Amino acid sequence: MLTNPSQLILKNSDLFTNQNVLVLNCEGDLLPKQLLEIASCVTALSLDFHHHLVMSQHSSPNLALHFGHQLPNADQTFDSVIIYYPKAKALAGYLLNLAGQHLKVDGELIVVGENKGGVKSIVKQIPDYFDTPFKRDNARHCLLFTSQLTQKAPNIRLNDWVNSYQLDTPQGELTICNLVGVFSEKRLDEGTKLLLSHLPRLSGRVLDFGCGAGVIAAALLKAQPELEIECVDINAMALKSCELTLEANNFTAKVYPSDGLSQTQGRFDGIISNPPFHDGLKSTTDIAKTFVKESVQKLKNGGGWHIVANRHLPYSDTIAEFFGQVNVLAENNKYKIYSNKIKHN
């Protein structure tokens, strides 16, 4: 099933006849594969690892699939580039620069997004190496704009898109590096602060689940540099931010994408997280339940599980079901820290 923006792209498929097409910020559907019915070649870059996995089993000689914040070959060029307008408006500028870097001069840029998602901002956001975007189509509560590259665009310089700042944590001061599109308040958010203020001493191999820009991992390594930390996230910009944060503080950890805990190997001595599950979504409960269940399977006997969560999220029943008991280490009016040890039979 195609998303509404993908359906609007397919409705304008005449734009891609015999073209070599790049799709940026792919949705979790099979649009890149379907474009091959019209285009000669398609390359897709997913910034969301789950979206990449949806497509990954469909790769073919004319369909190249990549996950990350940029393509492996910075010099590769295309006849046309599609951008799915991102939820984080600040990320649009980065994607436009990336599109310009890979588009042939006079090549076509197609930007598509939901009306309520801010896609109309593209007219003001477009860099001067593109011409003024033209609203070509409007359907399924989405808009599709086209533009042409009028002159060679500058290559992406990652430093231009990174916001670095100093952050005070209970473990000491850290340098945090935040790429556009990665959530940050330039201060320690309340949930993470509560978690870091009540950290037990950890040992061995520890997983930071949903690592974001690497605040928790860096704080752990500041306090205990001997730890073997592994950082996973589903978002390419977050993973790169985490790498940059670790580098800025002279810390070393393994950073890689994982859909849930599926791509992690072996068992851990500890799992720590401020889980990236948002309020108000039906899937929140299901995702949280899967995370708790997978955590039990991924912890060594005696391994510790330490997470902070909004106090109104229904974690207690799930934790009781899979861990056998619920241990709240600390709480305030917004958050609870759940801290359990695993006992395998």
TrEMBL record:
Enzyme Commission code: 2.1.1.172
Keywords: Cytoplasm, Methyltransferase, rRNA processing, S-adenosyl-L-methionine, Transferase
GO terms (BP aspect): methylation
Domain Methyltransferase small N-terminal stretches: 6-165
PROSITE patterns: N6_MTASE (PS00092)
Gene Ontology terms for molecular function: methyltransferase activity
Record-annotated Methyltransferase small domain positions: 173-339
UniProt keyword annotation of S-adenosyl-L-methionine present: yes
Catalytic activity: guanosine(1207) in 16S rRNA + S-adenosyl-L-methionine = N(2)-methylguanosine(1207) in 16S rRNA + S-adenosyl-L-homocysteine + H(+)
UniProt record similarity statement: Belongs to the methyltransferase superfamily. RsmC family.
Task performed by this protein: Specifically methylates the guanine in position 1207 of 16S rRNA in the 30S particle.
Protein name: Ribosomal RNA small subunit methyltransferase C
Lineage, broadest ranks: Bacteria, Pseudomonadati, Pseudomonadota, Gammaproteobacteria, Alteromonadales
